Amino acid sequence: MKRGKIRKSFSMLAASTLVISAVAPVPIVVKADTQQAITVAQAIANNSGIATVQGYIIGFITSNGNAVTQDPSIVKDTNLAIADNLNETDVSKMLFVEIPNKNNWRQSFGLETNPTNIGKKIEVAGNLKAYFSKPGLRDTSAIHFTDGSGTPSQPEAPVVISIADARTLPNGDTVTVQGRVTAKLRNTIAIQDETGGISVRPTSLNVQEGELVTVTGKLNTYQNLLQLDSASVVSKDTAQIFIPAPKVITGSQVGEAYESQLVEVENIILKNGTNGNYQATDANNNTFIVRDENNSLGLLEDINYVSIIGIVQQFANDYQIIPRSVEDVTVDPTILLPPVATPAGGTFIKGTTVTLTSTTVGADILYTLDGLDPIENGSTYASPIEITEDTTLKAVVKAVDDIYSDVITMDYKIVDALRIHEIQGASHTSPYSNQVVEGVEGIVTSTYEVTGATYYTIQTPDELADNDPHTSEGIVLYSGRNKWPIEVGDLVSVTGRVSEYAIEGYTDRQTTDLLTTQINVRDDQGGNVAVLEKNVALPAPIILDDTNIPTGVIDSDHLTVFNPETDAIDFWESLESMRVQVSNVKAVGPQANGDLTTVLESRATNTKHGGVLLEKDSKNADIIQFRLEPNSVARQFDVATGDKFEGNIVGVVGYSYQNYKIYAPLADMQAAHVKGSVKPEITHIVKDMKKLTVGSYNLENFSNNKSKTSDEKAQKLARAFVQDLNSPDIVGVTEVQDNNGDTNNGIAAANESYERLINEIVKAGGVEYKYANINPINNMDGGAPGANIRVGVLYNPERVTLADITPGDATTAVGYENGNLTVNPGRIDPQNDAFKSSRKPLAAQFDFNDEQVIVIVNHWNSKNGDDALYGSKQPVVNKSEVQRKNIATIVEGFIHEVKTKNPDANIVAVGDFNDFQFADSMQILEQRHMTNMINKLPEEDRYSYVYQGNSQVLDHILVSNNLANHTEIDAIHINADFTDMAGRASDHDPILAQIDIKPAVVDPNPNPDNGGGNPDDGGNTDGNNPGGSDNTGGNNSGGGNNSGGGNAGGGTTTPEIKPEETPENPETSQPEEQEKPAPFVPTDLPANHWAAGYMQQMIERGLLRGNENGEVKPNANVTRAQFASILARALSLQADGNAPFSDVGNYAAATQAEIAAVFEAGIVKGADGKYMPSGEITRAQLALMLYRAYEHATGEKYVPQGSATFTDVGKYNEETLAAITMLQELGIASGDQGKFMPTAQATRAHAAKMVIEFLEIIENR
C-alpha cells in the first residue's frame, strides 16, 4: 500500500486531525506492579506507575499535543497514539506513547518509516505518566505487536565496575559503580572508592554522607566535570557508615587526578573573593580556587588557614575545592578572630539554641544576653545557649594573654512559631526578605506552573491567623523544576529562603512590577517541604464586597503608607496569596488572554454596554481581575462586556502582568456565567447624501499576507465597512502593513493590502473604494520589523475626488500654498525627530460638493513604556506622552499654517491617537482650531478601546471649529466589548462622523487686526505660523502621479521606493521587541498558520511577547539577542554577573541579564569580546544553542546515536554536527529533501517549533 493512500479523514476540526476532549473517563485502579496487559482506558484513568498496555495504533501525536494525525507528510517515528477501538476518533480515549531511540524501535514501530503500522495492535510496557500534557506512557521498556513480532531482547543486569574504569569510558555510556558518599554539595553528590571519585546527579537521591551506595547513571561532562547523570540508587549498604579520611595533597595536585575526591590542602591564604570564589595560594605558591558555594563558610582574605578540606571539582578550565561546611575550614589559631554564632541573628522558634565557636585554641568566649558589653559583663561560654525570648547576644573571644577579639552582636526575635503573616508583614516587602526561615506551616491551597517552574500557595490555618487586615496569611512557594509530592489540602512545614520576585510578566517586570513574596523551597538550594497532615480543611476565604474593596484610588501616598482601607494597591497586597470569595460580579471588558475584568454587581457602570469609563481623575480602583485556569483553555471563553457571574467565586489572589488577579478555576466561572444581551452595533447616523461621512478605523495589522491576516478577519472588516458604518465617503485607516506583512524583505509597498480590503468590501456589497497612501521608508515607522505599518485613506470616488496634485513621498513635508496642499497626499514634517519609530500623519485633500476638505490621518506613538496602574512606580508617569505632545504640537502647527492662509479651510483629523480625550496631547491639538467631536458623544458612548477593564478613548475625530456645529459623531461598538469568537475583527472600535460642509461666508469688511483669521474659527488666529512647514526638500524618489486608476483597486498611489540595502538595526536602550501591554492577543497569528500551536505555547510560557502592535512575527528572522532571551526564560536562567561582551551595553538591562545568563550557562560564547546581538541566527547556530541548552537543562551532554543524514552539514565541526544530529534523532528537525539548510536564517515560527518540542522532551525525560 502506498503511503499516500493510507490517510484517513476526520471531520472534528480539519482533515487528519483529532481535537483533544476535556472529558475524562471513570477512574479504574491499576497497580503499578501489574504484569498482565491492561486496556488503554485503564491506563488513562490511572496514569501512574509501571504497566503494560494493549491497544491499536491510531496515529502520530502532533508536537503541540492537541491533535493526532495520519498525514504521511507530518508523521514521525517518535511517538504513537493508541486506543482500545480500532476506529477511535476521540483523542481523549487515546494513550500517547513515547518511542525511544533504542533497540531499533523507531525503525520498527514509527509511522514515518512504517505507515502501514496504523491499525495494528501492539503491547507496550513503560511508565504511565503525562506525555504532551496528556495521559501517556513514557520510558518505554518493551514494545511488540500482539503477534509477537518486534519483541526486543531483555536487558542484562548491570555490572558494577570501579570508578576509575568508569572514568575512562566515553560520555553517554550507562555505568554502574559503587562508592562511599563523601559529600552532598549544592549541585552534585560526591562518591569515591579506592580507585577514584565521581560526581553524581541529581542531588535529590536518597543517600547520606558515609553510606556505601551502588548507583547507575549515564556518563556526561558538564563544564569539564565528569558526572554520572540521571542516576538512580541500585542499593545501599548501611552496616558501616563512615567518611574516608581526606587525602592530603598540595595545591599543585588540585586537578584531574583527584577530581570528585575528598582532599585536604594545608597552609593556605585566600584573596580576591568574588561570587563565592577565592584565589587560594599554598605555602609553595601553588594556586587554585576555593569555592564557598552557599556563601556560608565566612571565609576571610589575607589570613592563614591551617587547612581546607573539600571536594575537588573542575569548572570550565579551573579546578576548585568545595568545602562541605565550616568544619572543613581551619584558621591559624594564632589569629584572634571574633566568635561565630550559629545560627546568626534572625527570627526563630522559641527554644532555638545558638552555638558559639572560635578558631583560637585555648581561648574563652564571653557572652551576654542583655546587650551589655561582654568584656565587662560576660559569662564564659560552655554549651549551646537556648533562646526563649527576644534577645540581643553579644560575644567576644578572650585569648590566654587577655587579648580580646572584636565583639559580635546578634539580635534574635523569638516566636512560638514563625507564621506567614509575620513573613508577609504589613508592607509590600517582606521584613524577612533574603532570610532563611524554617518550620513555617501552612495549608496548600493551589498549585500552578510558569515556564516549567512549579509554584504552590499555602495559607495559615484559620485558628493560627493573626486577624490583622494589614497582613496576608498566604504565601507562594517556589519549587523550581522539581515538584514536591504535595497537593491541595496538605498541611505542610516549610524551610527556605524568603525573596521578592515578579513571577510572571514582561521582561522588565523585576523593576516595573510589584513583587510577590515567596519562599524558595527548591531542594537543590536548601529548601524543604514536609507534609504534616493530609486532607485538611482549607482556610475560609476572605469575603470581598462593597464593604471592604476600595473604590476611590489605587494609590494615594506613593507607596509610603500601607493603608489597605483606602488604597486598592495596598488592599490587594494585604491579601496576597490568600483565598478570597467574590459574589455576583459583572464583566466590564471581554475575556482576554484567559483573564476577566469585573466589578461587583451592585456597582453602577457608565458605558452603554455595561463597562466603566476611564476618566482623568478615576482609574476605577474597584475593578476585580480574574486569571482563569487552565489559562490556555480559558482563552476560548466567550465573555463580553456586560455578562454576569452569579453566585460565589473562590480563588487565590496573585499578581501577573502588572495587575493583582484572583486565580480561579475556569470551570467555576463557566458555571456561574450568565450571558448578557449586548450585541455589536451599527451606526445610528442616518446617511444624508448632501453631507460628508468620514470614518476612522484601526485595522489591527492588516496585510495581504493571508497567513498573517486571515480571510475571516478581512471579511469581518469588510462587513463593518458596509453594514456597521454604512460605507463612509472617506475612512482614515491605521495599522495597514505592507503587502507581505512582517516579512522583512525591504519592500514597503502596500498596494496589494489595500486592494485586498477593497475587494472584500465589494464582495460584501459595498462601494469600490480607492486609496491614498505613501509608502514609508523600510522599518522607520515602528511596528513589527518588515511590516512597515502606516496610515492611509480609503475614499469613495463616486462621492469625493482626491485633488489632482502631485503626491508626496516618505520624506517630503506637505505644505499649504495658494489654497492647496503642496503634495497630495503628503506627510506632515516626516523627518522631524518627534516621529522617530512612529507613523507620520498623512494629509489628503478632497473635493466634496465643490467644497475642499483636508483629512489628516494619525497614528501616534503607543503607550509602551508608561508606568502601570498597579506597578512598583507610584505615582504613575506616562513617559510615552512626551512624544505624543511633541507630535501634537507639529500637527497643530500644520493645521495653524493652513488656517492662517485659509481661515475657511475645512479640516478633519482622524485616527488612533493613542491618548485620551483629556490628555495634554489632545488639548494641544484642540487649542486653536479644532474641536474633538468625541466630547460631543453621550458619556456612555465615549470609548473605542477597553484595556484591563477600563473603557477609554484612543480613537478620535476632530473637525475644524467652523464644522463643529455641523457635525454628527458616532462610536460604533463592534470590537472593544467582544471576543474574537463573537465577531471581533480588531481591538479598536471604528468612529464615524457626518459633516454638513457649508460654503464659507465672506465678510465684506474683515477685521484687519485679526491676522486674516475668520472670527468664527473660535481660536486665537494671530497670523503667525509657529509650527507648519513648507519644506519640500529631502529625497523625492517617488515622483509621478497615478491619479484615479491604473491598478485593480483604483486610487492615488505613489510609486514604490526602490529597495535599498538597509544597515543592521542600531542598538537601542530598549529591548529588541517593543512590548505591547497586557492584555496581549497576537494580531498576526491566524489559527491556520502552520506554527500557530507552537507560537501560542511560546506566548503562554512567557517566552514570546508581541511588539507594540501585538504582532508576534512568526515569519521574521530571530536575532541572537532574541533567542538568548527565549532560552533564558525557558530555562529560568539567572545571571550572577555581567556578560563579557562590549556590544550589548545599549540594550535594556533585562536583555543584558538574559544574555549574561545564557553565557554563564555555557549556551553562547561570542567572539572577540562581542556577542553580535542584532545578528540573525542560522539554523545551525540555533541547533548548537539547543544542544548546549540540553546539557545545561539535563546535566548531561547529548550523545548522538549516529550521525546526521543530511547531505549539507559535512563542513561543520564536531560539536555543531552533534547538535544537528541531536535535533534529527529527537525528531525536532527533519529537514527538507535530505537537507538541513544550516546556513538559512531561522524564523520565529521555526524557532518556536524547535524550542517547544525541545522543552517537551526535556520536561518529560
Automatic annotation (TrEMBL):
Assigned keywords, A-Z: Signal
Composition skew (Gly residues), residue ranges: 1035-1052
Annotated stretches, region: Disordered: 1000-1086
Alphabetized Pfam families for the sequence: CHB_HEX_C_1, DUF6359, Exo_endo_phos_3, SLH
InterPro entries noted in UniProt: Endo/exonu/phosph_ase_sf (IPR036691), Endo/exonuclease/phosphatase (IPR005135), GH29D-like_dom (IPR059177), SLH_dom (IPR001119), YhcR_N (IPR045939)
Gene3D superfamilies in alphabetical order: Endonuclease/exonuclease/phosphatase (3.60.10.10)
Signal peptide limits: 1-24
SLH domain ranges (all copies): 1078-1141, 1142-1200, 1203-1261
UniProt-recorded Gene Ontology molecular function terms: catalytic activity
Biased composition, class Low complexity, residue ranges: 1022-1034
PANTHER family, sorted: ENDONUCLEASE/EXONUCLEASE/PHOSPHATASE FAMILY PROTEIN (AFU_ORTHOLOGUE AFUA_3G09210), ENDONUCLEASE_EXONUCLEASE_PHOSPHATASE FAMILY PROTEIN (AFU_ORTHOLOGUE AFUA_3G09210)
Name of protein: DUF6359 domain-containing protein
Species of the source: Metasolibacillus meyeri
